[in-house]
Amino acid sequence: MSRSAQHLQEAADWLIRLQRPEVDETDWLAFDAWLSDPGAQAAYDAVQAVDEEIFQRGAAVRGELAEPRRVAAKRTLLIDWRWLGGLGAAAAAAAVAIAIAPWGDLLPQPDTLYTTDKGESRTLELADGSRVDMNTDSHLSVRLDKDARRVTVHEGQALFDVAHDRARPFLITAGDETVRVVGTKFDVRRRDGQLSVTVLRGLVEVSTDGEDNPIRLHPGQMLEHVEGASGVSIRSVAAEDQIGWRSGRLVYRDQPLGRIVSDLNHYFVRPIRLDGENTATLRFSGVLIVDGQEAMVRRLTSLMPLSATPTNDAIVLRGRPSASN
Questions:
Q1: Nearest Cα residue to 84 out of 71, 74, 98
Q2: Which CATH number fits domain 112-238: 3.40.50.11260, 3.40.50.300, 2.60.120.1440, 2.60.40.790?
Q3: 56-72 pLDDT, tens per residue?
Q4: In what residue span(s) does the FecR N-terminal domain sit (predicted)?
Q5: What predicted TM-score, i.e. pTM, was given to this entire model?
Q6: Which of 139, 148, 221, 244 has the most CB atoms within 10 Å of its CB?
Q7: Which residues contact 193 (CB under 8 A, 6 or more apart)?
């Protein structure tokens, strides 16, 4: 067996090994050591390219790949190798080696997944010159092809400042919406099945599954859509308010408390819960500075008819009697 074929088998073994629940720091250190062997990195990238090809084209495994796994410095391992019909690790590795050998150079580049943890933000500088600012607790994947630049917002929020490239449109998929741009600046939010697109500069076109005609948005306009539902709503907004999170401010104009608490729960590990029949529908307008959880809750209860009760595993907000008057 040639050294390159051996590397492919070893790469497939690592792909399987690192997905096991019991993987630990020892495994990652051994994997890093293996990557230092000449040719190992290229083999592993080739195996991941097959992984992505299956993700894009393999209907039989698409359901198992619906939820992206969280990655930070390393790329995610998307594939469940049980699709090979229960073959052992060695047989799976051989199958991958056979599949890659003739066509490896023709396979598409894999998506790169980016995530932020609760309370974390992140800025991406893409190879095409575009910039992506990711909000807290967000997950998106990026692939730059020759004919298009493709991003999927799996969950969360991001501000895109897209470099102009007429030959390669910038396509963003978020739920059942597709955003198409050439060069512009806009915000995409996907949380709890609620989708929104806000334009700060330039023009974007938004298409929804099942709709024939895309909707064109201008600066200062926001499109909102419930995932899976028919129709969208478009309204004029103060676009800078929608990206206040970049400077540590959450700006609300007549929003329900349920939406605000949902936002806060993406910043902190300890959940905030609502108690009371009408508590979630209370309306709020104002600005919340993003700092400590207790400080934010205290600020919110000072501005609304609410009481906060810490428990062992959460903070419970209840409407005061005056809230229903």
A1: 98
A2: 2.60.120.1440
A3: 454 444 444 444 444 44
A4: 9-49
A5: 0.65
A6: 139
A7: 175, 226, 227, 228
